[in-house]
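Message: I would value a second opinion on how I read folds in token form. Give me a protein, with the fold worked out from its sequence. Write it directly below this note and I will take it from there.
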Amino acid sequence: MPRFYFDVSTGDDITRDDEGLDLASLEDVEREAKRGATDMSRDCLPDGCSEISVQVRDEHGERVLTVTVSMTVRREAFVLAYA
């Protein structure tokens, strides 16, 4: 079974996965990357991080997919009076 590595990027910070996971298919890899990005975004996005990416490498170091979750907050002009 192939091994995949899930590197996490939040802005300028990158955490490299040196352990990896053995997964049977690209669909399993995508599911795991989506779960990871979703879980981490719950903590990161409300605290000021605007984007989190999970970049997946195969056992040869080649990137196979990237999952990105982002949040954009746009304050409207009339709301500025309440600041």
In short: Strands lie at 3-10, 13-15, 21-22, 51-57, 63-70.
